[in-house]
Amino acid sequence: MVRGDPGAGKSLLGLHFPIEGFESEETVLYINLEETEANIRQSARSFGFDIEGVDFLDLSPESEFFVRDLSYDVFRPDEVEQGTITATIADRVEALSPDRVVVDPLTQLRYLTPDDYQFRKQVLAFMRFLHDQGTTVLFTSQDIEPDPDDDLQFMSDGTITLENTRDGRFVEVTKFRGSDFEGGEHSLRIHRGGMTVYPDLIPRQHRREFVSEKVPSGVPEFDELLHGGIERGTVTIITGPTGVGKTTTGVQFMKEAAGRGERSVVYSFEEAEDTLVHRCGAINVSVREMLESETLAIEEIEPLQLSADEFAHMVREEVENRDARIVMIDGIAGYRLSVRGERGELNRELHKLGKYLKNRGVTVVLVNESTSIAGDHGEAITTVRMNLATGPDGPLTDPYTHPITFVRADFQAAATASGSSRRRRPLSRSSFGVGGPSSVLV
């Protein structure tokens, strides 16, 4: 049973079912009780579907019913039409012996029965008849206020609910008799090729063995502060005000990874690709060469175009199909603004994505913009926190994080380990570096 409001995608899912059967060399029958066969075929063509091999039993009302006023004045419709429709369906099923049958919508039969008891009895008999024929049935249901479809849910072996909300389209399996299934809402997108489902990410299902090793930045002084670099399979957050070098710091690790032949991906929620390429090029980080050699990909994320599940699917494609070893999300605030969903839900989704990437041995860099933190002379400070774990208030609550602080003042920047000392270096156009200790941070 496929249920949902008008426009949720019930009939589209109903098209996927017989097409898959036909491609598997099965016999399929589509019984349409509302929309005409011509309209269904036209709709299928608009999605790029080939349904020439699908048999139709068109029981939709014809225009003659209106033109010739073929309404019933003495008898109810169920007394006139029910026997004819039932016999027509039975004859076609027995003649075709289909492996798959779609009934769209089954609730249309409700208007051919005098009461709910007779409707349930008719549906049960219909389902038993199809079962005896060895047929797998998918039927759609119009769940409207005067005539809810609760009774049909009890009679079906599986229930799929489709929703179309302001936060996007979703699918939920609430019943699948005799089998286990992934509950909860999963994102859904309708496009030229039909329907695509993005299952909710479950990190524990994606564990794999990997070598725990250091991922250096290629800047000796910086790596010294990090005791060799950040660790593979960990999540690192770089936080600070605008313009202090958060993104550039993350890209520096990717530059070094490219030299080892590893692929990295930047998901940019706030900055255009050209801007990132230009800024990195100004300090001799050759992002353009990395893009050309495919050791780096930059994905610009458009606001409110993706759900959290869809974004997670994008990341999984890079990790599982293109072997990305470093993933940077730039930045966390942009993720919350650009990805559809409530703030608390998005924090949980970001945490799940981080757990998934850690389980796959991927090094993760999260860029987070914060307000300026004043130093001795009003410098802007950036803090790098290591081995991030997300808590109830977001991704900055792990007591085991290892802070690294960058200070920008008078066109200079610095880095300190564990807040113990301050190191300065000029922001030159030819390098990314860290100077020696200069003072103690308090």
The structure class reads alpha/beta
The tally of helices reads 13
Terminal CA distance reads: 64 Å
Strand order of the largest sheet: 14-13-16-18-12-19-20-21-22-23
- Gross morphology: elongated
Could you describe the largest sheet, including whether it forms a barrel? 10 strands, mixed
Summarize the structure.
Helix content is 33%, strand content 27%.
How does this model look, in words?
The chain starts with a strand and ends with a strand. Residues 70-81, 372-384, 386-403, 406-430 and 438-442 have low confidence and may be disordered. 33% of the residues lie in helices and 27% in strands. By secondary structure, the protein is an alpha/beta fold. Helix 11 runs parallel beside helix 13. The chain is elongated. It is built from 13 helices and 23 strands.
Question: Which terms would index this structure?
Answer:
disordered C terminus, ten-stranded mixed β-sheet, elongated, 27% strand, nine-stranded mixed β-sheet, alpha/beta, 442 residues
Question: What is the fold's blueprint, element by element?
Answer:
Layout (H helix, E strand, L loop, with lengths): L1 E3 L5 H14 L4 E5 L4 H10 L8 E4 L5 H4 L9 H20 L3 E5 L11 H17 L3 E7 L7 H6 L2 E8 L2 E9 L8 E7 L2 E5 L15 E2 L4 H6 L4 E2 L3 E6 L5 H14 L3 E6 L4 H10 L4 H6 L3 E5 L5 E2 H14 L2 E7 L1 H7 E2 L2 H17 L3 E7 L10 E6 L18 E6 L2 E6 L4 E5 L10 E3 L3
Parallel strand pairs: 1-5, 1-6, 2-3, 2-4, 4-5, 12-18, 13-14, 13-16, 15-17, 16-18
Antiparallel strand pairs: 6-7, 7-8, 8-9, 10-11, 12-19, 19-20, 20-21, 21-22, 22-23
